[in-house]
Amino acid sequence: MMNAPDHTDQRVRMDESSPDPPFQETYKTLFNNLTQTAPKNFPQFSVMEEIELPLIDLNKLDLGDSERESCKKQIARASQEWGFFQVINHGISVEILEKMRREQVKLFKKPFKDKTNGKDLNFSVGSYRWGSPTATCLSQLSWSEAFHVSLSDILGSDGLDNLSSTMEQYATTVSELAQKLADILAEKMGHKSVFIKETCLPSTCYLRMNRYPPCPMSPQMFGIMPHTDSDFLTVLHQDHIGGLQLVKDGKWIAVKPNPKALIINIGDLFQAWSNNVYKSVEHRVVANELKERYSTAYFLCPSYDTVIQSCIEPSVYKRFSFGEYRQQVQEDVKCLGYKIGLPRFLVPSH
């Protein structure tokens, strides 16, 4: 097996003022082997249909009983059949979304060296991530960079600068939306969502700002390699540049972008808690050769000591803590190059 690239390698040479991570320099061993291994080394993408996700108008939650109930059923059905849906009239203003995007673009336009050393940033050490440190072939490489920030970093910042105050405003409104949707999904299972409310605290949830630089190898490279999310719920705001793809009925489909809507997807914890009623669906991002792409994801996560168990018996999954789950995912990615996730926690069949 090839040694994984080392992001700390000081021999990597690059333009000091460039915002782009040094993908080709750092992963040159993987790219140099293309002549012998091109067919199996690159991810393989077939031409696929672009489909619009189920679109749900959350205004209906404020109307009469019939409209409200119909909207809740739509949310539950999309979570069962797709694991993904998009919402409009979601309560997050266009002004906040646009301001968040502007601040995010400014952040990512900083020189790469400033992002890696955290210069002028108020985030915890390790918040900035790029590429795939464990990649041993190009199909395990994610052509992207991100700031993965704990809400405790954001909400305690006292609006130190435009970025901090904008992130705080955005995170506060998006977290309210995530909890509202979690309430509805729990209710449709016949349960109150006190468990999710009490365990998913500002200190345990995350905001992830993503940038996908133009990729000269597109469309043969992942922006983010295939995965499921390890949380309860994810709320995603993306721009008009396509690239998000997901599995539906055993096939990959491309998601038609709608910048006016927010995308919601079910995470592994909700699938385990609902005993497979709600689906955490595999998804990925494909890089774009000419255009950069931005997105912002909010992850509704519990504390690490929170124990996840099914609300229905007999349970498909063993009881596990979120900390155990995260540790297993990290070990698998380190050893195998990819996440296995929930199948690790299935109850053995007799």
Structural overview:
It is built from 11 helices and 15 strands. Helix content is 32%, strand content 20%. The chain has one domain (42-345): Jelly Rolls (Sandwich), CATH 2.60.120.330. With 350 residues, the protein is an alpha+beta fold. Helix 5 crosses helix 8.
The number of distinct helices, counting runs of at least 4 residues, comes to 11
The helical percent reads 25-40%
- What is the architecture at the second tier of CATH? Sandwich
- Strand percentage, roughly? 15-25%
- CA(first)-CA(last) distance: 36 Å
Element order, helices and strands? Answer: HHHEEHEHHEEHHHEEEEEEHEEEEH
Largest sheet: 8 strands, mixed
Question: Per the principal axes of the C-alpha atoms, what is the gross shape?
Answer: globular
CA radius of gyration is 20 Å
Q: What is the arithmetic mean of pLDDT?
A: 88
CATH-level-4 superfamily name? B-lactam Antibiotic, Isopenicillin N Synthase, Chain
Derived structural class: alpha+beta
How is the CATH topology named? Answer: Jelly Rolls
**CATH class annotation:** Mainly Beta
Number of self-contained structural domains: 1
Strands of the widest sheet, in order across it, are: 2-3-11-8-13-6-5-4
Assembly state of the chains shown = single chain
InterPro entries: DIOX_N, IPNS-like_FE2OG_OXY, IPNS-like_sf, Iron_ascorbate_oxido_reductase, Oxoglu/Fe-dep_dioxygenase_dom
Protein name: gibberellin 2beta-dioxygenase
Pfam family, one: DIOX_N
GO molecular function: gibberellin 2-beta-dioxygenase activity; metal ion binding
